[in-house]
Every structure is written in C-alpha cells, then in structure tokens.
Specification:
By secondary structure, this protein is mainly α. The protein has helices at about 10-20, 35-40, 45-60, 65-75, 90-95, 105-125, 130-155, 190-210, 220-235, 235-250, 260, 290-295, 310-315, 350-365, 375-385, 395-405, 415-420, 440-445; strands at about 80-85, 275-280, 305-310, 325-330, 335, 345-350, 425, 425-430.
C-alpha cells in the first residue's frame, strides 16, 4: 500500500466504532492522525522528498542494498562459492531448491513494488514540481522504475533468451499509484516483452531528462549504463555498444587502480570513485550494505556466510592483481574483499562493465562501435596487470571470462549465464529451478496472477 495512505484504514476503522456512542456533531470533525494525499505532495519540495524515499526503498537490503546482488550469484554458482550460513531462504537459492514460500523471493518482490509505487506517486505529481527541476525529477523516477522492473523480470520470469518473450509471462506492470486494494488493482502478469519494452521506455526517457551530473543520484550516464545492460540481455548488440559508448565518451568517468575500485577501508563511510556510475550510498548512520553482511567475515561486521572456493581462485592468471582482492579470515575461510567495508557503498554500475559490454557486443556484432573489442578488453586486462590479448587471438570465451572475473560477486552471474545460454551444473539456463517463484502470498491474494513452472 502507498505509504501516504498506510495509516488511513486503521483510523477509519476506529473512527467507525466511535460513531456508535458519539453525537452527530462529531461527524464534522476532521481527522488529525492522517494527511490527505494532495496535501502531502502539495509542493515541489514534497515531491522531491518523496523521490528521496524512492531511493531509500531502492537501497533496501532486499533490493539494491545487497541481497539482490548476492542472490544472483548464489543462484548462478557452480562450485566457485559456498554458502555456509544458517538462513533458510538464501540457502534454498544457493542449492537451486526454492520453495514457493521462499521468504527472500517474497520480500524482494514486496520491496521492489513498494519502491515502484513511491515512484508512481512522484510521476503522478510532476505538475507541482518547479519547471527548473521537473525534467530531473521525472528522469530520476523513471530510472528507478525502469531499473526495478528490469530486475523483477530477470528474477521472476523466463530469460529473454528462453522461448518467446512476447508469450512468456513476465511481472505485472503497475504504472499508476496504488492507493487502495480494489478488484481493479488485482493485476495480471504482463509478458516478458512488454516488461522489457517499458524498461527501455523508462530508461530512455530518463537518459533524455537527467543531467550529466547529479550528486550521488541517478544521472544521464547511469540511465545509459543501465540501458546497455538491458540491451545486452536482449542480445541487441549494436544498441548495447552504443549505450555503453555514450557513457564512456561522456568524459564523466574514468578507470581507477584495482585497489581503488572497491572500498577496502574498514568501518568507514562509503565513498564513490571516478569509476562509479551509480551506487547505493551507505554511512554508519544511514543506508545498508547487506553484501558485507553475507560476504564479509565476522571481524569486518559480516556473518561470513559466503566463502570463496579454490575453483574460483584458480581462474586468475599469474600476475592478475584482482587475485589480491581476497583475504583469509580468522575462521580460516577465504572471502572477497570487495565487500569488506560494512559502511562501503553498494556499487551498482561502474565503468569497467561498460568496456566489457562494448567489447562483447562489438565482437558478437563484428563491429567496432566506439572502439575495437580487443582495445576495450585490454584496458581491463592492463589495469589488472595482465598482458594484452592480440587482436588475432581474441575469442568470445576470453571476453566472457574477463567479464566473469572483473564483475565477480557483483550480482551478474545468473544473468550472464541465462543470456549466454550457459548452465549451472546439470541445470540448463532455462531450468525452472533458476527462476524465482511468484510469492505465494501474492498468488493467494490475487487470483489473476499465475505461478511459474515448477512451483
């Protein structure tokens, strides 16, 4: 339910009880415990405050605060990490044995739609935003909504590469504020193709309306970067390369040294680097980094639930400085240092991904949009302390391996497996076990929703 309305029904009920003993004159008393929606978003400042709430919801632990990234890696793992925790929900994800009532699948769905509803309220009240700020506010809101629908359709529906997107059920598209639960509000699932179309529309609008710089909020570059990710999932390689090129050639971002990419400090408020395109902001006072909770050892504020196995460590070439982004904890386990700082920002989009996306897209498309594939790939290899790969020796597996190592433990694994039609152990990319269930509570409450195969 819309946060602006969440207190109305309890007070309406209690008020009804009072009528049984109250006098008629009291019927004209205005409630003091609630606020009218129109009054709540009466000014430009009100709408912008609501937008900040949408960012807060986006950064929730079960969305971009870390768990969504964690689960994409757990679901796609094939022996490179080990989940040693006691929490049932992520353990089911790691073992590819999700039950229909998996609590993580439930809260990620709920929190994502809560954030979307806040965004829809922002978009419904753009008329009160000042002319100077309206485009930016609309762009930020659509960036958040497009991003969330992209994540939802990737986790709760078949991949774009699995069957027919125009026929496969995706997730419900809700594009207007929900203020109460009515029969009309009980929506059905749109198709995968329809959801992707809305994602592209939102992110394209966002890129058009957002400024190049915007503090730590969404920017033109963030929208283009997310678009490149979307197009790569859809195997639209020229579009993916062009979107990545817009980010790279904007001049707003730069690769930094390997030891600067991730915040290797301990218990320090998060900071962005020149490589960061978009990140969830975390401090000791606000925000959450649940990636640290699960990937970080106990002495660094985490639970130490996800250990790195030798199978992953063996993938790094001799001299690869990314192999130094691991540490042995007091319990003897090996952990990634990417999430060692419990107050470090959660990095969602960074420049290295854009170079890797463009390299792969150009290689598959036999093109050189922005740069030749080997040029982009070797920028990342050189930063890692490795020798360049000669143009004549470049292969698609080499590009995909570089992507796997560079973006390890950042929430890309299951999605890369699905779009490349790979496998997770004995499970093919299109296995129903690699798709989240629609939460049981949603199915029970809304007869228009259908469940995914296998649940």
């Amino acid at each position: 339910m819309n946060p602006l309305f969440k207190n109305i029904l309890p007070y309406a009920f209690s008020g009804g009880l009072l009528l049984l003993s109250g006098c008629a004159g009291q019927l004209d008393v205005k409630p003091v415990n609630t606020i009218d929606a129109g009054a709540a978003v009466a000014t430009s400042g009100d709408v912008e405050a609501l937008l900040v709430g949408a960012y807060d919801a986006l950064g929730d632990a079960d969305v971009y605060g870390g768990n969504l990234l964690r689960d994409a890696d757990l679901l796609g793992d094939d022996g490179e990490i080990f989940f040693d925790g006691t929490f049932v929900a992520p353990d089911e994800i790691f073992r590819k044995s999700l039950l229909v009532n998996n609590s993580q699948a439930e809260v990620t769905w709920l929190d994502s739609y809560r954030a979307i509803n806040i965004v829809n309220n922002v978009l419904a009240n753009l008329d009160v935003v000042t002319d100077a700020n309206r485009d930016r506010v609309e762009g930020e809101a659509k960036f958040i909504r497009g991003t969330l629908y992209f994540e939802l359709v990737r986790m709760y529906a078949k991949a774009w590469t699995d069957g027919t997107p125009s026929a496969n059920p995706g997730v419900p598209l809700v594009l207007a504020p929900t203020t109460e639960i009515t029969e009309e509000a009980k929506v059905s699932r749109n198709t995968v193709a329809e959801v992707y179309a809305q994602v592209v529309t939102d992110l394209t609008d966002a890129e058009t309306k957002l400024p190049a710089t915007n503090g730590f909020f969404a920017t033109k570059g963030a929208a283009a970067a997310m678009l490149s990710r979307v197009y790569l999932m859809q195997q639209k390689y020229p579009e993916a390369a062009n979107a990545a090129t817009r980010v790279i050639e904007s001049g707003r971002y730069a690769l930094v040294s390997t030891d600067e990419v991730f915040d290797l400090r301990v218990n320090q408020n998060g900071t962005n680097t020149a490589e960061d395109i978009f990140a969830i902001q975390v401090t000791s006072q606000d925000g959450v980094n649940s990636a640290n909770t699960f990937y970080g050892a106990a002495e660094y504020g985490g639970r130490g639930d996800i250990l790195i196995e030798d199978a992953h460590l063996a993938l790094y070439e001799e001299g690869d400085n990314r192999a130094e982004l691991f540490y042995q904890a007091e319990n003897g386990g090996i952990y990634t240092a990417k999430w060692i700082n419990q107050y470090g920002n959660v990095k969602i989009l960074r420049l290295a991904e854009m170079y890797l996306t463009r390299a792969e897209a150009n290689f598959r498309n036999n093109s050189s949009i922005g740069a030749a594939p080997a040029t982009d790939l070797n920028l990342i290899r050189t930063r890692a302390g490795l020798a360049p790969i000669p143009v004549a020796s470049l292969t698609l597996p080499a590009i995909l391996k570089e992507r796997h190592l560079e973006l390890a433990f950042e929430g890309h694994l299951i999605h890369d497996i699905k779009r490349t039609k790979g496998s997770v152990g004995a499970l093919a990319f299109d296995s129903p076990k690699l798709v989240y269930p629609v939460p049981r509570r949603e199915i029970d409450a809304n007869g228009n929703l259908t469940q995914n195969a296998g649940y």
